[in-house]
Write a structure and sequence with these properties.
The protein is α+β, with helices and mostly antiparallel strands and about 190 residues long. It is built from 5 helices and 5 strands.
Length: about 190
Amino acid sequence: MSRSLVAMREATLADVERLTELWAPYLRRGAADEPLTDVATAIEQLADRPGERLLVAEYDGEFAGAVYFKATQYSPVNSELVVQIHNLCVEPAHRRHGIGKALLESGVTWAEELGIGYVATAADAGSREANRFMARLALGPQAVLRVATTCAVRARLSSRQSAGRQVTQVLAVRRSQRSSRSVAGR
């Protein structure tokens, strides 16, 4: 009987540097120490948050991937519980060894232990591989999460408002021209 080379464990502060490297695309940009501080703070706060877990996957004793779980309401207006699966990532050197599946299975097992009937996750819209992986495991699209900077959205909203005023002005000019023509045509 062969033993599995994949092992799961709770993250510790000793994992901060590896997690920061693994999750670099998803962490805030700024001073070099800010992402490290954010990850360390997340690990430290887990003791006070029984509805959250951060697991590390090891493959044959080596750091291979990680995932963050959060048991929460489905949405502010739907109080049904769901286990959200955040930042499921596998080190490139350890992909295609069952690590992603084992990380996801840990989330499903935890949801079952808590009596929660749903799991949810997000995958980078541009990652065909990640989206296909999730689809193969029965995770279908429920919504599209769109993100932009506040100032970018403000700029677009402002341009639309001014464009809306221009359209209103154009329509007013056309109406007055029509009424002028109908008066002149009498």
